């Protein structure tokens, strides 16, 4: 397409008077090309998504329906309709004419005038255009306008990915579903899920039998393989892939072997390597082949396989180099077995580490190039492998481990990294064997207290930067400074209906302030009221009324599920005498704040399978003012305006090792229920105030 030619045609016949042209709207990733006009497109109260004729393409139909649902989530008071016909002012038109769009699989042309026109050669291009539209609208919530102009956009790289280790830290299926939508909002299209792995035995008394391991997917061939403390059913994983496809995100399941295989050798003890440790399969034993083939077979066979997308990751990293020939044989065998089911194979780069003569198939194989000492990129390309740039020294997040990154160095990544940078090697940006890039979260330190929310706190800012770099390559910093990018990116969130970071805005930093009123618990910041359930009110003083909780199924539901880091929650409580262990003050689906944590009698909280308590007992039958504040580093307690304790910086010490492990004691504060639908505290409650910032001790004392 001649972009300049289109712009010239648009201005033919216009007088010589100069009008200010609309500047390029800020979106992530950046538009590849923009030509501004004057004026704005504005949404109507009825949003029409228009096609000239019925669309037979099922994929495009699905994307349009997804877009319609997103618009309904953002604008619940507007009507959103999918129509056939000619577009009118204020409509969004999906145009089937692709003559002016280059043959770019994911590219699109966006023409913004009185109505908005989307052209693309492939349905996915049209879908990415809808993400651009939503991001622009998000930055103008009051006026719902988009600057007129023409945008052409297409990614520089085919694979724009994220890898998450769910094996050593379980993430709920709902969390993964939200991540699909989050990634899609930033046009990231590749979500690799690392399904099995294990911890380090030095953190488990140097005993493999006690070392944590998990295989997260339902397996009927070997039922005891599936983790008991968190797993996904086959149907859940199928539905996750379907959701991914509806949002343009390819789910890549990874089953890792022959290293990282402790979950497998705990089921088949005879397959544990006596030489290299129980996390290594004994690949000289033919049964190791049999077991791994059967595991893959369960998810690949039949007319409706569990892994129904085109690519599967077979792991194959970090095996003992002394077994290079056996390792190469095992890798080649696994590749060919998976390919029998018409799948394309991905694997971790390991063949420089495992040098040898045994051939390993390279044609149509994609390798995550993560450490050049394990797989020298130039050598892998020479062998015929395609590569995904996943360099550990740039893009590995290992929360609170003390190595790699806790939070990525995003300034450095933004200025210096793009998918053509693999470790310390720089390759041509247009090198066809470099398919793209991916960043990763590895939860190496099992038991360190990291929560799903903590991971998102690390991932979200990285996702914004890497979405930019994987889409447009290394020209990012030459067009926009990192500081400017950060400033502007703060105005773009997670996408329609997603709030993984627990962000809430109010007219001030007070986002919720509840005073009981009649038979309602009224939110004076404007959110909807909720009825009391098995609780009642009576006057306390002035406007305030106290609520009586009876214990058991006694609760009040608020409009907010939880609040994320950078908060202070203040309330007054008068516990009845004799509350039971684990009596709950606040709860949500993922966490709870307890009047009596476990059997300690002390105030505490639980989330993600971890239980913490402050060194403080809330007195019975006495009114106490409590304030809890939390950020990404820890959680603080104030009682009657006086600081009591900060939970942060705890270290676990292990016998017979010099290693230490940090313990993360953070909390997204649960707010869905005051009390609990199952195990509420008994007592009286008053005056909940929730602030979206960490208040100082002086301010807390003054409340």
TrEMBL record:
Family annotation (InterPro entries): Beta_hexosaminidase_sua/sub (IPR025705), ConA-like_dom_sf (IPR013320), GH (IPR017853), GH20_Enzymes (IPR052764), Glyco_hydro_20_cat (IPR015883), Hex-like_dom2 (IPR029018), HEX_bac_N (IPR015882)
Residue intervals passing through the bilayer: none
Protein name, per record: Family 20 glycosylhydrolase
Species name: Pedobacter ginsengiterrae
Residue ranges of every copy of the Glycoside hydrolase family 20 catalytic domain listed in the record: 157-472
Any coiled-coil regions, as ranges: none
Stretch forming the signal peptide: 1-20
The entry's keywords: Glycosidase, Hydrolase, Signal
Highest classification ranks of the organism: Bacteria, Pseudomonadati, Bacteroidota, Sphingobacteriia, Sphingobacteriales
PANTHER family associated with the record: BETA-N-ACETYLHEXOSAMINIDASE, PUTATIVE (AFU_ORTHOLOGUE AFUA_2G00640)-RELATED
Domain Beta-hexosaminidase bacterial type N-terminal: from-to ranges: 25-153
Family classification: Belongs to the glycosyl hydrolase 20 family.
């Amino acid at each position: 397409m001649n972009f300049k030619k289109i712009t010239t045609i648009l201005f033919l016949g216009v007088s010589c008077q100069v009008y200010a042209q609309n500047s390029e709207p800020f979106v992530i990733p950046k538009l590849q090309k923009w030509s501004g006009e004057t004026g704005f497109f504005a949404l109507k109260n009825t949003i029409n998504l228009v096609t000239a004729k019925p669309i037979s393409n099922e994929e495009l139909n699905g994307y349009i329906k997804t877009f319609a649902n997103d618009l309904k989530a953002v604008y619940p008071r507007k009507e959103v309709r999918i129509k056939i016909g000619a577009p009118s002012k204020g409509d969004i038109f999906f145009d089937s004419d692709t003559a002016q769009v280059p043959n770019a699989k994911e590219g699109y042309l966006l023409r913004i005038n009185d109505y908005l026109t989307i052209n693309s050669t492939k349905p996915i291009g049209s879908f990415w255009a809808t993400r651009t539209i939503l991001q622009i609208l998000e930055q103008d919530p009051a006026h719902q306008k988009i600057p007129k102009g023409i945008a052409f956009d297409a990614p520089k790289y085919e694979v724009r990915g994220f890898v998450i280790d769910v094996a050593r830290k379980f993430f709920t299926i709902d969390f993964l579903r939200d991540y699909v939508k989050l990634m899609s909002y930033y046009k990231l299209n590749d979500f690799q899920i690392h399904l099995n792995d294990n911890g380090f035995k030095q953190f488990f008394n140097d005993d493999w039998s006690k070392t944590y391991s998990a295989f997260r997917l339902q397996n009927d061939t070997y039922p005891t393989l599936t983790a008991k403390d968190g797993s996904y059913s086959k149907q859940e994983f199928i539905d996750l892939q379907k959701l991914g496809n509806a949002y343009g995100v390819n789910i890549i399941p990874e089953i890792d072997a022959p290293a990282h295989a402790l979950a497998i050798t705990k089921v088949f003890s005879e397959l544990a390597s006596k030489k290299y440790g129980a996390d290594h399969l004994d690949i000289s034993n033919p049964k190791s082949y049999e077991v791994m083939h059967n595991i893959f077979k369960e998810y690949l066979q039949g007319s409706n396989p569990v892994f129904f997308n085109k690519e599967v990751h077979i792991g194959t990293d970090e095996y003992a180099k002394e077994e290079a020939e056996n390792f190469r044989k095992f890798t080649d065998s696994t590749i060919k077995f998976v390919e029998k089911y018409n799948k394309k194979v991905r694997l971790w780069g390991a063949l420089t580490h495992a040098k040898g003569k045994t051939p390993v198939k390279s044609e149509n194989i994609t390798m995550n190039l993560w450490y050049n000492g394990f797989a020298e990129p130039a050598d892998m390309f020479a062998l015929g492998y395609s590569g995904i740039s996943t360099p550990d020294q740039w893009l590995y997040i290992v929360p609170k481990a003390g190595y790699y990154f806790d939070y990525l160095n995003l300034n450095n990544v933004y200025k210096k990294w793009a998918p053509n940078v693999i470790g310390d090697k720089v390759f041509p940006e247009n090198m066809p064997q470099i398919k793209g890039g991916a960043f990763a979260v590895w939860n190496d330190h099992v038991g360190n207290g990291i929560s799903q929310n903590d991971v998102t706190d690390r991932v979200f800012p990285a996702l914004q930067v890497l979405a930019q770099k994987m889409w447009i390559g290394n020209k990012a910093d030459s067009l926009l400074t990192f500081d400017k990018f950060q400033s502007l990116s703060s105005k773009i969130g997670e996408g329609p209906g997603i709030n993984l970071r627990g962000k809430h805005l109010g007219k001030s930093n007070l986002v919720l302030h509840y005073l009981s009123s009649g038979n309602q618990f009224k939110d004076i910041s404007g959110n909807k009221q909720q009825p009391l359930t098995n609780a009642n009110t009576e006057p306390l003083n002035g406007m305030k009324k106290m609520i009586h909780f009876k214990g058991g199924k006694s609760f009040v539901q608020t409009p907010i599920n939880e609040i994320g880091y950078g908060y202070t929650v203040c309330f007054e409580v008068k516990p009845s005498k004799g509350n039971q262990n684990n009596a709950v003050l606040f709860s949500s689906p993922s966490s709870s704040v307890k009047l009596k944590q476990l059997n300690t009698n002390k105030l505490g909280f639980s989330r993600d399978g971890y239980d913490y308590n402050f060194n403080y007992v809330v007195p019975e039958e006495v009114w106490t003012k409590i304030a809890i504040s939390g950020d990404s580093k820890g959680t603080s307690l104030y009682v009657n305006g006086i600081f009591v304790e900060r939970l942060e910086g705890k270290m676990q010490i292990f016998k017979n090792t010099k290693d230490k492990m940090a313990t993360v004691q953070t909390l997204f504060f649960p707010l869905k229920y005051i009390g609990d639908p199952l195990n509420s505290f008994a007592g009286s409650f008053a005056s909940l105030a929730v602030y979206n910032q960490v208040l100082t001790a002086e301010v807390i004392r003054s409340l």
